[in-house]
Write a structure and sequence with these properties.
Two copies of one chain form a homodimer.
Chain A (H helix, E strand, L loop, with lengths): L1 E6 L7 H13 L3 E6 L2 H10 L6 E4 L4 E3 L3 H23 L5 E6 L5 E3 L5 E5 L2 E5 L9 E2 L1 H9 L3 E10 L4 E3 L2 H11 L4 E6 L17 E2 L4 H5 L4 H15 L4 E6 L5 H6 L4 E3 L1
Parallel strand pairs in A: 1-2, 1-12, 2-10, 5-10, 6-10, 12-14, 13-15
Antiparallel strand pairs in A: 3-4, 3-7, 6-9, 7-8, 10-11, 14-15
Helix pairs in contact in A: 2-3, 5-7
């Protein structure tokens, strides 16, 4: 059984607990591919470098990090260091983790968003110096090669754009396409909320179960991060993944809880 | 035929030209493993972060970067970004490059130098917060697995210490032990000098050929970087590597020139 596990990069995520759960799963003989975010680490590095952190809102209403050339360098360093720290922590727990970014072996490829249509102060404008992209192709042969030899791939949210640049990609959607490409049984997305909330300001309004068909009714109601998670969940289920669990990454046993069905189970 | 190529991280290295030569070699069907340094990138990042760069001189007279916990984080970020940029550049030239640090799959392992005996202002003192180490073991199975599938491994100078930490390792000596472990035909070390100089202040005094037995007479005469290169060369030749070339990384065709024997050829 193969699970793809995305560990969010937001503040408050209990990364150590998630990695400890992953080590237990691997010890039980499960195949695991890990993806991770790095938003908190990127913000902190940008602050240390005295760089402003900017976000933009697309005309579709999705908020995302604005990544010009300078911000891309910062993002890359933060992402790759988070990746290396995850690998090191897993190695120290007996897991033969191996870190990759989407550049390595052309693992994650797709178009760079050449022009980003955003809304700023109520007006539309186009940004052309943004280094973000979308993953369309996964080098599954590389992942299978590593999994067969007992390695646990740990993937940073960077892709190799068709135009040759390194680009920042959304970790949730990257996890979804990796899960689809590998036909994973389960995709677990751990973040700093308990799952999908009917009212995003009230953690007691957790939606515990959802069918793929019901996703769209929540998509437009959700903001930034959750909206991308729902889009990812839909893409993963369409791609053949059996079950997506959006779960709380702040708890003591985040992966164990998620696999036991705590969170929002979408199937 | 397998070559291990170390691209120095010092200022002035023509990295783009070295990578272009590597792409040509790979296109000719040669097997290549790349290691790289990152000293210039680390110094620049440390400056951007307002961190002091410190070096220490061991009692044996070898100068090296002082890497406390903060400096290690900076070193990791610089090393991993240089790694990703090399991978990206090679991918854009049709080479299926795949970046690894010594943490990945436990690729490079060995002891952390728990206590570093240094000389400061003429006095000996011991430093215990230094995160540097020495590579003693190489996961050759991983490198063979990747080479057999047509990937070109690109290795950053970080190792997984036996005590569990990430450590900064000397790139030249890491390249030497990788070359030995793989029984490479040739180890090429590209740096910002033409090779071994009889008089280090005069580039016209290049030593063009040297036997393994003659290395020791130059070892004590050489400073910092060149001394480590000679130690690495000796270790590589003892380990079964046929030929080590210390060559100029600042020229138009650094690898082509080195393989043609320009530089210091040690065999």
């Amino acid at each position: 059984m193969l699970s793809v596990i995305k560990i969010g990069g937001g503040a408050g995520i209990n990364q150590r607990a998630a990695l400890s759960d992953i080590a237990d799963a691997v010890a039980r003989g499960e195949h695991v591919v890990v993806l991770h975010g790095c938003s908190d680490a990127t913000d902190r590095l940008a602050a240390d470098l005295g760089q402003p952190v900017r976000h933009v809102v697309s005309t579709a209403g999705v908020r995302s990090r604005y990544t010009n050339a300078e911000a891309l360098r910062t993002f890359m360093m933060a992402a790759l260091r988070v990746n290396a720290e995850i690998v090191r922590t897993l190695q120290n727990q007996g897991v033969n983790a191996l870190g990759l970014s989407g550049l390595d072996g052309g693992l994650l490829r797709g178009p760079r968003k050449e022009a980003l249509r955003i809304v700023e102060d109520g007006r539309q404008r186009i940004i052309r110096d943004d280094f973000t992209g979308r993953v369309e192709r996964v080098n599954t042969a590389l992942l299978h090669l590593l999994l067969e030899q007992g390695y646990v791939p740990v993937i940073a949210p960077l892709a190799l754009a068709d135009s040759g640049e390194a680009v920042n990609v959304d970790g949730d959607r990257a996890a979804a396409i990796v899960a689809s490409a590998l036909l994973a049984e389960t995709l677990v997305i751990l973040s700093n909320v308990p799952g999908l909330l009917a009212d995003m300001h009230n953690e007691c309004t957790l939606v515990t179960a959802l069918s793929a068909a019901e996703i769209s009714q929540y998509e437009t109601l959700s903001a930034g991060g959750m909206r991308r998670k729902l889009i990812g969940a839909r893409e993963a289920l369409c791609g053949g993944v059996r079950r997506v669990v959006l779960a709380d990454g702040r708890v003591e046993h985040p992966l164990q809880s998620a696999l036991a069905g705590r969170g929002t189970v979408i199937a």
